[in-house]
């Protein structure tokens, strides 16, 4: 069962909720696009599971319903496609998929990322290399609410992304798509010259071969290949991750490459070619780590600064630069 608790909003910025029977405020997040705003004094029901478990990027309570001001929404009278269908959060959306029977445009190049931390460096590098109109498709595998990502908002505000589509179970982007392949197919009609696609923040990790959010990249690659698009994969590299399975070329990236059913381009920063196992076809790419570090975009991953794990950021910088070459 869901671990739901009643509470009262005691702070709006940052949002904090004090649970019934407690005097200690707790960090919380509300998806205002779904539930509307929370104001001090509002009575809310929150899902407390993540904070109670001490999760990292998901370490906050999530507002499930605002009992004070969240029960008056009228819903849609025109849209009938449901996101999060058959859950208590199901809601209708309009979608961007191409109508059946219409001509398909040539697919634009697609860069698959296995975790959200690659989005900002990849988008920055693509823009620095002269790419115009690169869009982001958010998939499953990480956070599903589109509005949760601060990175997406900043990249859109700075003109480093041309748009944001939430596909499959993800929702709340500027545009919605029922399927990932439908979103990629629609990219050209949105005026995009290339796509970066992958999960929202906070992917699920595990020590298993395939049971992790990084496998979302495999779905992206196969969708791209099915449409005849050039398929690129951003390599997850590390010299600072304490987990051996992520050092060098992460097992996340290796698993995706092992399972891919078609040709995948793997751009690799030229100064870190030694981190790639022998026998792997790569495209060496020069990267500007110092330029990205001074860009004001996120430069930390899992508590480590760029200077503590330069390969982690170099991987998506190489991928973004190469996306600009083929876009």
Task: Describe this protein's structure.
With 327 residues, this protein is α/β, with parallel strands linked by helices. The chain folds into two domains: 63 residues, OB fold (Dihydrolipoamide Acetyltransferase, E2P); 217 residues. Helices cover 23% and strands 23% of the residues. It is built from nine helices and 19 strands. The chain has a six-stranded parallel beta sheet with strand order 11-10-9-12-8-13, with helices on both faces. Strands 1-2-3-5-4 form a five-stranded mixed beta barrel. A two-stranded antiparallel ribbon has the order 6-7. Strand 6 and strand 7 form a beta hairpin. Helix 3 crosses helix 9.
Structural class: alpha/beta
Largest sheet, if any? Answer: 6 strands, parallel
Q: Kindly give the count of domains.
A: 2
End-to-end separation in angstroms reads: 47 Å
Strand content: 15-25%
How does the overall form come out from the CA principal axes? globular
The run of helices and strands is: EEEHEHEEEEHEHEEHEHEEEHEEHEEH
Mean pLDDT: 95
Strand order of the largest sheet: 11-10-9-12-8-13
Gyration radius, in Å: 20 Å
Q: Helix count?
A: 9
Question: What is the number of beta strands?
Answer: 19
- Estimated helix fraction: 10-25%
Low-confidence region ranges: none
């Amino acid at each position: 069962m869901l671990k739901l608790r009643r509470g009262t909003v005691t702070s709006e910025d940052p949002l904090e909720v004090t649970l019934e029977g407690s005097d200690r405020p707790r960090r919380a997040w509300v998806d205002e696009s779904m539930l509307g705003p929370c104001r001090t004094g509002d009575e809310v029901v929150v899902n407390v599971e993540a904070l109670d478990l001490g999760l990292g990027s998901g370490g906050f309570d999530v507002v499930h319903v605002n009992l004070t001001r969240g029960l008056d929404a009228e819903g849609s009278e025109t849209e009938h496609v449901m996101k999060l269908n058959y859950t208590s959060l199901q809601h209708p959306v309009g979608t961007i998929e191409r109508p059946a029977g219409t001509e398909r445009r040539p697919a634009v190049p697609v860069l698959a990322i296995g975790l959200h931390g690659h989005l900002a460096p990849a988008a920055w590098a693509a823009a620095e290399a002269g790419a115009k109109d690169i869009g982001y498709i958010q998939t499953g595998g990480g956070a599903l609410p589109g509005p949760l990502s601060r990175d997406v908002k900043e990249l859109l505000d700075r003109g480093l992304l041309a748009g944001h589509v939430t596909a499959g179970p993800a929702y709340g982007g500027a545009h919605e798509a029922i399927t990932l392949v439908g979103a990629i197919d629609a990219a050209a009609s949105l005026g995009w010259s290339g796509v970066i696609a992958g999960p929202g923040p906070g992917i699920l990790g595990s020590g298993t071969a395939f049971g992790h959010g990084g496998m979302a990249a495999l779905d992206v690659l196969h969708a791209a290949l099915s449409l005849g698009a050039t398929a690129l994969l951003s390599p997850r590299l590390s010299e600072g991750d304490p987990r051996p399975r992520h050092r060098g070329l992460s097992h996340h990236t290796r698993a995706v490459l092992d399972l891919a059913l078609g040709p995948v381009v793997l751009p690799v920063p030229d100064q870190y070619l030694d981190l790639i196992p022998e026998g792997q076809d790569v495209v060496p790419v020069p990267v500007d780590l110092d330029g990205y570090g001074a860009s004001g975009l996120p430069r930390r991953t899992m508590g480590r600064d760029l200077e503590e794990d330069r390969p982690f950021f170099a991987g998506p910088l190489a991928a973004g630069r190469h996306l600009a070459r083929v876009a």
